[in-house]
Amino acid sequence: MKPDKILSMTGIAMKAGKIVSGEFSTEKAIKQGKAYLVIAASDASDNTKKHFSDMCAYRQVPYYNYSDKETLGKCIGKQMRASLAVVDECLAKAIIKEFMKMETE
Question: Which of 39, 20, 33 is nearest to 60 (CA)?
């Protein structure tokens, strides 16, 4: 398995203090207009994924379902996380670029 660039970039963003995680903090960041990218775990509940995808669509925040709760949490050095938001525009753009590369492969 090749190293996962998206997860390692998310880890870097976390070290830089540019990630908020957990449903409450993610939602708050979106509502305050601070979220530049939202990632929800693929194994999060359908309700959670719909909630964030609708919220992001409404506020035009890029949204992706990716990885699983355990891996998402681990890459940012925390317990299981169903959702996280990147609150730095440059880091968010870099991660989105990786998602786009993945989609074209």
Answer: 33
pLDDT tens per residue, range 47-71: 999 999 999 999 999 999 999 999 9
Given a contact cutoff of 8 angstroms between Cβ atoms, the answer to whether 62 and 97 are in contact is no
Residues facing residue 68 across a β-bridge: none
Tokens of 56: 């992001």
CA distance 80 to 101: 26
Taking a C-beta distance cutoff of 8 angstroms, is the pair 26, 84 a contact? yes
The C-alpha atoms of residue 92 and residue 9 are separated, in whole angstroms, by: 9
Q: In terms of pLDDT, which residue wins out, 19 or 2? A: 19
Query: If we measure between CA atoms, which residue out of 22, 1, 5 comes closest to residue 91?
Result: 5
What backbone torsions phi and psi does residue 4 show, to the nearest 5 degrees? -85, 110
Cβ atoms within 10 Å, residue 8:
12
pLDDT digits (tens, 9 = 90+) for 9-20: 999 999 999 999
